[in-house]
Amino acid sequence: MKIFFVSDIHGSIYYAKKAIEKFQEENADYIVILGDELYHGARNPLPIEYNPKEVAELLNEFSDKIIAVRGNCDSEVDEMVIKFPMMATYSMVLYEGKRLFLTHGHIYNENNLPKLRDGDVFIYGHTHIPKAEKNENIFIINPGSITFPKEDNPNSYGILEENVFKIKDLNGNIFKEINLE
């Protein structure tokens, strides 16, 4: 199974389309959205081609393949136009004998980890900073932001396949990678 990860679209139809293009190019089975799907947030500028309605319509076309969690910029009204559940603080997926704990990062984060077992994987967004590391036998991963990358990082997404998590820029170049074994 191949899983595509994206975070912090923030209502940009331009970057939502890029994410879907990459999902299709990667031939992934599922899309995990780590929050902040539609709204740009009060701290962010308007993104390129800001159009939350179009983003919702595009994502809805893939609703049977999406696992999503709520970000700090998401609200109940967003779920009225989205055809997949996206208001949970976290979700968990079992993958190759490991628990993937999926969250946005504004509640659970590196300073407030949920109870995880050795070898489990904590995957979040929110900071817009890509990360792939192991800390005390827990894997900590952030695919970065597709729309608003920070700290001179590129717009990015993640791919999990065969126990390897790769963080890629929009040209498909891998710039962070971690083996989950």
TrEMBL record:
Cofactors that this protein relies on: a divalent metal cation
**Repressor found in the keyword field:** no
EC number, as in UniProt: 3.1.4.-
Q: Which domain of life is it from?
A: Bacteria
Instruction: Identify the InterPro entries for this entry.
Output: Calcineurin-like_PHP_lpxH, Metallo-depent_PP-like, MPP_YfcE, Phosphodiesterase_MJ0936/Vps29
Which SUPFAM superfamilies does the record cross-reference, listed alphabetically?
Metallo-dependent phosphatases (SSF56300)
- What CDD domains would the database entry show? MPP_YfcE (cd00841)
Provide the GO MF annotations for this entry: hydrolase activity
Q: Outline the extent of the Calcineurin-like phosphoesterase domain.
A: 1-161
Supply the alphabetized keyword list. Answer: Hydrolase, Metal-binding
Assigned protein family: Belongs to the metallophosphoesterase superfamily. YfcE family.
Note the PANTHER family from the entry. VACUOLAR SORTING PROTEIN VPS29
Q: What protein name does the entry list?
A: Phosphoesterase
- Organism, by scientific name, is Clostridium tanneri
Higher taxonomy: Bacteria, Bacillati, Bacillota, Clostridia, Eubacteriales
Primary gene name = yfcE
